[in-house]
Amino acid sequence: MTLKEKIEKDFIEAYKAKDELKTSVLRMIKSSIKNKEIANGKDLGDTELAELIAKEIKQRRDSSEQYKAGDRAELAEKEDEEIKILANYMPEQMPEDEIAKIVDEAIAKTGANNPADMGKVMGAIMPQVKGKADGTLVSNIVKTKLSK
What we know:
By secondary structure, this protein is mainly alpha-helical. It has helices spanning about 5-15, 20-40, 45-70, 75-85, 95-110, 120-130, 135-145.
């Protein structure tokens, strides 16, 4: 079963169960998928869907942080619940130690030795971990290793 089929199946189940939040989140992601497919002129594969869902999760994280900063806990909580629902459709994320190994290899390959070389290292790493690791986590690991 493709990721798109799983989203559709779960949407129908949530709709029948009258789970308003899950129905709303899945309706939104289905709409995003359709818009992206129209823009690209082709159906999206699982990798592209995972990237789209990761983008939606990032937007919700940002919104949640803004709501928390604005002392709007109830809205932040709703965003966090939506993140949990969307996270079910993401591929399993790489563990930190595996990301650290890839970072070490990229640093050695690019010859980076200070924080100014971060762009080179990130450019070498991201194609390998795209969809499998959070970009912020990767960025933090790279910063830590280059600042030593």
